[in-house]
Amino acid sequence: MTRRYVLVARPTPSGVDLTAVGSLAEACGIGYALLDQGEPTIHDTLDSAATDDLPVTLIPLAVPRDRYLETWIARAVANWKETRGRDLDVRVTEGIDTATGFDDVVRARMKEDGKPVTASPRAFRSPAWSLIPEHTEHILVCRGPRCTVYGAAELHRTLRQDNPNALVTPTGCLNPCNLGPLYITYPDGRWHTNALGSAIENA
After folding, report:
1. How confident is the model at residue 131 (pLDDT cuts 50, 70, 90)?
2. Got the DSSP string for 141-195?
3. Which of 9, 26, 65, 153 sits CB 3.0–4.6 Å from 95 for a disulfide?
């Protein structure tokens, strides 16, 4: 039986270099998933594997080891099994920094002087980063692990599409996760919980 291997990355709210993640996955001949903040999600990956009836091994992609990533991979898998009613064989490896020879990779870099830093400090003074974008309201969309599972990606897309004059900002976990997916609108400070269905109905 063929086993499907998948790298799992944990983006920050500012994003992740998806090109680099995708290139690494492609070089290894495997796929990738994102814990939160983007797609494909762990649930997407497991849905695909279940359709193909393939067992899955998830590889946490973090250096150094990220126990939050590992913990939430396991929780996402447990949620997938519960909500899908499937008993797919899903396993998780240790972090890549525990692999034999990983320290040799670091030592190899220590043999190099590196390239000179030539970046300009102007980015910290650019007027463009001193302007607050014009907007009618500010919408904060939770893209944490649980809200991602509950449909935050679709919610985020819908809110951006249906509110062109709003500043729609993805965030990390906003805490009342079991009420997700959720978002907050300002200036009214209103919390919109279990929001996917209502957002789509209003579209």
Report:
1. confident
2. EE-SHHHHHTTHHHHHHHHHHH-TTSEEEEES--S-GGG-S-EEEETTTEEE-S-
3. 65
Residues near 84 by beta carbon (within 8 Å), at least 6 away in sequence: 46, 47, 50
| Cβ within 8 Å of residue 86, ≥6 positions away | 50, 80
How far, in Å, CA of 3 to CA of 57, rounded? 7
Give 3-state DSSP helix, strand, coil % of the chain, rounded to 5.
40, 20, 40
Q: Are strands 167-171 and 138-142 parallel, antiparallel or unpaired?
A: parallel
**Could you tell me if 76 and 147 are in contact, meaning their C-beta atoms sit under 8 angstroms apart?**
no
What is the rounded CA–CA span in Å between residue 178 and residue 39? 20
Question: Which residue in the block uniquely carries the two structure tokens 């240790």?
Answer: 94
pLDDT digits (tens, 9 = 90+) for 132-142: 899 999 999 99
CB count in 10 Å sphere of residue 86: 13
User: What is the pTM assigned to this prediction?
Assistant: 0.84
Alpha-carbon gap, residue 155 to 104, rounded angstroms:
44
Query: Of 174, 140, 146, which is closest to residue 159 (Cα–Cα)?
Result: 140
